[in-house]
Structure formats: C-alpha cells, structure tokens
Amino acid sequence: MNQACVYNDTIDVGNHHGRPQYRPFLRFLTTQERNVIWLLLAIAFLPVDGTTLGLYAPFWSPISPALFAAYCLCNWRQLRIVVNRYLPMFLLPVACIILSIPGWLKFGIHLNAAFMSITGLLGVLATLGAIAIAFGIKRIPWRTPLRILIAAYWVSFAVGVVQWLSIHLHFKPLINYFSHLMYRQYINESSVWGGGRPQFLFAEPSYIGMHLFGILLPLMWLMRGRDRIYAKRLRNLIVVYAIGSVLMQAGTRIVLDSVVALLVAIIVHNSWCDKKQRVRGIAQLLGAVMLGLLGVLADSRLSSIAENGAEGDGSFFARIYQSLDPICGLLAHPWTVLTGYGSGNIINAVWAGAKHAERLLNGLGMNGSAAVGFATSMNADTVWTMCAYTSVVAEYGLIGLVLLVIASIVSMTRVFDTASAEHGVWGKTVICWLVLIVYLYIQCENYAFAALPLFIFAASKLRK
Fold first, then answer.
1. Cα–Cα distance between 223 and 17 in angstroms, integer?
2. What angle do CA 156, 167, 202 make, to 5 degrees?
C-alpha cells in the first residue's frame, strides 16, 4: 500500500508533501457528501467552548458537540454502522442510567443537572460518531477539515492576543465586549475568577493545555511520517500557542501541562533501543525537567505552592476541596462507592461530604471551612469538581469508571486496521497518548470534550 495513505480505513491522500488538495474535497462535496457543513462547523468551533453562544454546562459552554450530533443525525444510516463498531461506548449511557437508579431513588433527581450529565455522555458519542462516519466510513478527504481546524485555533490565539492587548492598554470597549462574550470571563480585572488574563475562546485559561495537548498534539503524531507539512504546521501552532500563553501569563496550568507534554513528546520521538537516540533522549528529558523547575521558579503561583503548600494558591486549593467534598460524600454512604449518587446528583455527594472534608483538612492543618463554604454556595446546576474522575465516580461510582475504561479499550481494540496490526494497538505512541489523556482529565471534568473520542477513534491508526 502507498505510504501516503493517512489511515487504512480512510482515504488515500495522494500528495505526501502537504500541498493544497482542494479538488478532491470539492469533488467529494458535489458527488457524495452534502451534509458536511455540520462537520466543518463543528471542527471550526472546537476552540470555542467558553462563550455565551454555547450550550450551558457547569464550567463550560461548548458548541461543537451539538454540531457533531447534527452531522450524525443527517447520516443516520452510517451511524448504525458506527454504533455497531463502537458498541461498548454507545451502551455506556444506558449503563450509567441504570447505575443512577439507586441514587435517584435514595436522594431524588435534579432533572436539569441529570440532563446536562447525560447529554455530556451523548456528546462524547456524537463526536466519536461524527469522526468515524466522516473519516472512517465516508472517507472524506481530510486536508480541508484539518486546514479549518488549524485556522480556527490560530483565530482563537489571535483573540487571546487581542484580549491581552486590551487588558494592558486598558481599552475598555474591548474589555467590556469580551467580558460579555465569555460565559465565565477572566478579562476584567474585577473578575471573581482571577481577572486580568486572556482566556482566548476557552471556558477558562486552564483549558489551554487540554486543547493543545489533547487534540492538536495527537493530530501532529498522526501526521508524522505521513504528511510532513501538516505535522510541521501543527507543531508550529502548538509551540507558538504554548509559549504565547506563558508569556501572556494566561494561567499556571499551561506551564505544568507544557512540561508534561514535552516529557511525553520526547519519549514518543526517540527510539530508546538505539544507543545514540537513548543518550539524546535522556539529555532532552533532563533539559525538560530543568525547564520545568525554571517554570516553577518564574511563576509566582507555582512558587507560592512550592513554598506554602496547597494553600499557597487559592485556585489550586479550591481544586482540592472541590473534589474532596464529593469523595468524602461517597464515604458517608459507602454503597455509593460502587454505583454513585446518580446522574446529576454530584451536589448531594458534596453536601454529604462537606463536614467530613472539613475535618480532614483541619486535621492536615488547612482551612477546612473552605470545603463547607463551597458546599453551601453551590446548587445542583452550578456545582463542579474540575476532575473528570471525581465527577464520574460521584455520579456513577467505581463501576461506572471501570465501565468507561473497559468500553474505551474494547472499542479501540475492536476497530484497528491492518496498518497498525503489525505492532498491535498498544504501540509506544498510543501508550504515551493514553498517559497524556489520563493526566489532562485530572483537571477537566467535561465529558463531551473531544480528546477522548479522538483517542478512541484514531489511536489504532498510529503506525511506527
């Protein structure tokens, strides 16, 4: 097979050097695919997950999952094939609803919160289904969608630069515009979330790393060895975005995420069986660690955490008690460890665990009253954990978390192509990608974020 193929089950891209290939895409549109506008819009809006234009959910307001769902509905015949291919993933919402029944019977049901949780799960399936239909079944030429994706992220970066300039130049009209545009704004210095920072088009600045290293970096790995031009364009976008975010002091998490992603990328891009590359790789890893230490010293918030512990930074400490409350709530009702409190009932777990979390934090010499204050200030529609694992376990228990892991792995191994069959689905890059995904979701609770479905679909397409 021609090595210019992107995937075995997608299409032959023909041109290995990344030159524009508009004709195949236009020919495809006019002869086969008339609903692709939904897919292209969804791709274009991937970096837009924090504006008032999106669908409300705690801590973010995405647009793309609804557009991916529209594309799936327009291609319902192909969707049936995708459901069969990824059946474990598509059965997951049914299992979660069943797991929720005991919690609903015991604690009641918060309809709006339950709806947001279940539609979040459906958003994962909509994204997975749309990607699989477009690039796995219909074999849509991928270069135009990828160009749109790259352009969309450059636009979001440009928005961040404009936000940063408006903040530092005290240009009130732009500051007010972005303050009203963003669902939870960090632009205005009076923001309760820590203002005076660009957030691009994301729900909050901490999601920068989710986009760069959960979506763009894996796509760069997919292009590596297949299309050098697009791999280079993605690399340049990631590097400029990461460095620009750090220089503009958009957030602390991007510093940590960049170091972790750099370590993972070094492991991926070196052949550790070769002595010369092994020595080079070790040197690069040491350099990345030193860079990380410099980042900690240069960032005031990280330095404060290093010197004063968890309470050295309010945002970092908040992430601790926001997860500690529901985890302690599970211990307050031990049977919920297995099945959770039910979909939409995170708030019940928070209320049940707040006092236990307070005592635990006080015992560790921290401010335990913060855990109680958080619980009393939240309701079912506004509560958040900022950790996907905490949210899944609080709503669906350990059984739900285990089912998610099993469904993801089984779906990956059921659908891998002959290109990857030479070395199996668990190549080094796939393992590193998985490690990176696991790390990123520690501080992102949004079920419908595109990183996981992209991983499930594309991991089997990676070749040595």
1. 11
2. 30
